[in-house]
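Human: For the file, kindly provide a plain-text protein record giving the amino acid sequence and the backbone structure tokens, at your earliest convenience.
Assistant:
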Amino acid sequence: MYSKQIPTGFPKNFLWGGATAANQLEGGWNVDGKGLTTAEVVKKAETREDFSMNQVTTESIAQAAADPTDNAYPKRRGVDFYHHYQEDIAMLAEMGFKAFRLSIAWARIFPNGDDATPNEAGLAFYDKVFAECHKYGIEPVVTISHYEMPLALTQKQNGWASRQTITAFLRYTETLFKRYKGVVKYWMTFNEINAITGGFTGTGAVDADLSLNEKAQLRFQALHHQFVASAKAVAQCHAIDPNAKIGCMLARMQTYPQTPNPEDVRAAQLSDQLNLFYTDVQARGEYPEYMNRYFQENHITLQMDPNDEKVLRENPVDYISFSYYMSTVTNADQDVEHFHDGFVFGEKNPYLQTSAWGWQIDPVGLRISLNDMWDRYRIPLFVVENGLGAEDKVTSDGKIHDDYRIDYLRAHIAQMREAIEDGVQLMGYTTWGPIDLISASTSEMSKRYGFIYVDQDDAGNGSLRRLRKDSFYWYKHVIATNGAELDAPVATAKD
């Protein structure tokens, strides 16, 4: 008779925490030798339906580079973590964080991307940030490239469209691995690598004047360069610091068929393949066979160096991290084969509620994704983004009652616990934006995810004062009980 102990609850070493990005958090965009980044030339969207973060031209870049202010470019100011990091990390420690996911701004280390020597002031800043984390027993989880690269590489060689960018990236990664050996244990190469085939945000390449097919060709070629750069960075990391772990990161889009019609089921399967293709390459070390037909039908021809496939094969990642916010529905009538960007937003699911931003809330989908990915890859998984963007209101006595956020997170954590009992090996959970920051898509401040409220509006006005929301105290209790108590009464802010 077969009998094996079923895991119950979260592992003792589970990495509870939160996740951020330098270009949405730090500010300090023009101090201490930092160069301009691609994120800092994308204007704030005019409406919440305006996802123009990839609509960048040579002319708009020149205009942005000549603008000495942050008025139209909120990612330049972030929420000034650059000068508030001690206060902010102390508040994360108060919640009991075990891990803090943050990214390093490449242009803070190499202002032009390919400088001969690194900028010491930039390295020293992260020395201080990591030391502050370790003071409280918080493990830094570091994204090497999170939706930003030095703008100079765009202007010089059109970003990742050029194979030369691999060399610049590896100089940057080698610098990081040597400087922070023994300091940073967990690394990941590219944030939501599937975003690269959406355009400028991921590629750093200007392609506004190209046709759809030309854009697809450029973006998938840029993606190949990132795959090679990531694999070589894995090799570097393992050689320089054998105790460190280095992973990849995907924006997971769980897709369901709209009906049991086999054609709809096949459409959902294809959508899932186009989403997981990225982790197939990075975790399995090779391009999956199903992409051969996709490339052929979409007239995409990748240029590879003779050694590229060997590099990918010999350097798979140690773990897979991913963001999960929602699921989607598709059918055979949707032209999914031309959704080159890896983010397939399909039909609405009538069984799910929807956030104010139109994102469908599906906690069970997280359990489904965890099981699917564990079955597919059999290496540790790490949920590094999950959360609810909402317009929080401050009461007259300075409190923020965000029970809607607590409900969202509670439901997702409960499903992670179910997945662990299913047998999934899950390393940790870092919610998106533990402190309010600038929105990635629209660059607004009003869309808030944090446990910590930052007094700043969309125009950059405000005191930058940090306030604890109700969710701050709730998450503190979740961490203190290692996820065992999700329904405990919620204390409210006393300050």
